[in-house]
Amino acid sequence: MIKKLLIANRGEIACRIIRTARKMGIATVAVYSDADAKALHVRQADEAVHIGPSPAAESYLRGDKIIAASKETGAEAIHPGYGFLSENADFAQSVIDSGLIWVGPKPESIRAMGLKDAAKKLMREAGVPVTPGYEGEDQSVERLKQEADAIGYPVLIKAVAGGGGKGMRKVDKAEDFEAALESCRREAKASFSNDEVLLEKWITSPRHIEVQVFGDSHGNVVHLFERDCSLQRRHQKVIEEAPAPGMDEATREDICAAALRAAKAVDYENAGTIEFIADASEGLRADRIFFMEMNTRLQVEHPVTEEITGVDLVEWQLRVASGEPIPLKQEELSIDGWAIEARLYAEDPASGFLPSTGHLEVLDFCGDARIETGVEAGAEISPFYDPMIAKVVTHAPSRSEALEALASELAHSSIWPVKTNLAFLVSLLRNHDVQDANLDTGLIARMQEELTAKPDLSDRALSDALDWFIRESTDFDQKAQDLVGVRLNREPQNEFRLSVNGTVQSFRYNPTPKGQIFEHGFRDSLEPDAQFVSIGGHMMKITLPRFDSGGAASAADGAILAPMPGKVIAVDVAEGDAVTAGQRLMVLEAMKMEHALTAPFDGTVTELSAATGDQVQVEQVLCVVEPSDD
């Protein structure tokens, strides 16, 4: 058995691996960049080694530094987690060539499944059904356009080396193909250093079903049943659950058997996932489920499989990497209950899910859910890495119970001031179609406006907030007189004012009767004269307004501000150009994703202060559009 393990990753997956390693009596070594010097995974590990500056390309993607850190600390093995170097066959081979144990599949298996076009050909030969499409070597725009036209729109462009939703574009009509291809290739090149693509037929009622597989060096391969990952946004998973709703035993047997054939075709060892796309227009049927790709690593969503099987997949990884056989046989594995996972991100749904960064003043989870996180209150959400705050997982006897438990956990959690998708997740979990398992990968896009709507604070909520201030402050009456302009000894129904997230709101005050519990959850802020209220996951900061302090400066109408720090990678207009509402003005790259900035209305570009290649800061004015006179 491995005695000392280096974890070539960060955040919640590094903490997750440390937890299992400690349970097994294995010492752990963390690696960290400048940005992560005080990170949770660094403090939880037995040792930690600094490997470079904050950008991943100079730290977590430097295989040579990671191997050197293993040698320096005497670690016998390297666990890559997921992302970064986890599916890099050359790095895996370098680890093995250095005399270290690689906690993952063989490099040749990674290579066989690493390029989606080659993997599809291999799967056809193994008798695994694949999605209709084009995986040819001719990558010219003309040939790709010709093949897309032949497949029929809509089609999906996918980077052959892609993953995590990057380098993917759905194209609905022929005239949009070349622009989508250009954007897809640019993103794929930046993310994977490979801009080759393949084409797939877009399935109109798609469900994303995947099967967890596991192999060892003794010729054993098992599956641990399926997961449903259909609730996605921009091809990135948001909610995952196991088992898949609507999956009957016959279909489960067929899809799991196909997954085992796929794993055996590449002589697979350690943890892996076979991903399928299902045409669910007539329910889940084996003859309408197609292979998409294989992820040759531990998946982000592995906790839901652990919850329904009672298996610790990281422990299995470490045992198998040490040469042991898989601990359980196929007939010893079974499904117990239902598990659901939500990915909690630092992002702003109200602004198109743009990533949010900054200091986490409050991070408070409320109850019994399984929390997988790599941050805590007081931490910084950096712009350098994936903006995940936590994975929140519930397990219950039934799907409806697991859904409600997860929605309740999220609704009563508190995060501030970093913007998150907390309320969006609550709305999604309580959506009627989600509750009824009417799922497909386009559900979020269709219902995004409904799912991201902000609640209005009622007079009752604001009255409760005012009562909270009264209870918590011995001199509130004087503060109310000085700052609000009324006294509390007047009759009820007086008009009061409170500041909610910096905006003053008026309301009719109705005191909460003595002994009555507040309808909403409140908690104190670290700042004086401030508190938080959470309504369905929507976190709001309530303060006493100070009208003499002046308003916050804001950009004039038509000013296009950088929504986050990033790099300008395309500028589509020049000063003096006439533009129409919604027209793309420029593209900003941040957190490994592209974000198009568009004109807010018809008008003329009167100022252009950013050029391709510029590094810009949050709220920097990049462009000004003056509205048309008419």
Main traits of this protein?
630 residues, alpha+beta, Rossmann fold, Dna Ligase, domain 1, D-amino Acid Aminotransferase, Chain A, domain 1, 5 domains, eight-stranded antiparallel beta sheet, five-stranded parallel beta sheet, 18 helices
Quick summary:
This protein is of the alpha+beta class. The chain has five domains: 4-103, Rossmann fold (3-Layer(aba) Sandwich), CATH 3.40.50; 132-201, Dna Ligase, domain 1; 206-451, ATP-grasp fold, B domain (D-amino Acid Aminotransferase, Chain A, domain 1), CATH 3.30.470; 459-549; 559-627, Beta Barrel (OB fold (Dihydrolipoamide Acetyltransferase, E2P)), CATH 2.40.50.100. Strand 1 (4-7), helix 1 and strand 2 (27-33) form a beta-alpha-beta unit.
| Level-1 CATH class name of the largest domain | Alpha Beta
The CATH architecture term of the largest domain is 2-Layer Sandwich
Question: What general outline do the C-alpha atoms trace?
Answer: globular
Distance between the termini: 75 Å
CATH fold name of the largest domain: D-amino Acid Aminotransferase, Chain A, domain 1
CATH homologous superfamily (4th level) name of the largest domain: ATP-grasp fold, B domain
In the predicted model, the low-confidence regions spanning at least 5 consecutive residues are: 479-493, 546-556
Rg for CA atoms: 26 Å
Give a quick account of the main beta sheet: strands, pairing sense, barrel closure: 8 strands, antiparallel
Q: What is the count of structural domains?
A: 5
Task: Please report the total strand number as a whole number.
Answer: 36
Helix content: 25-40%
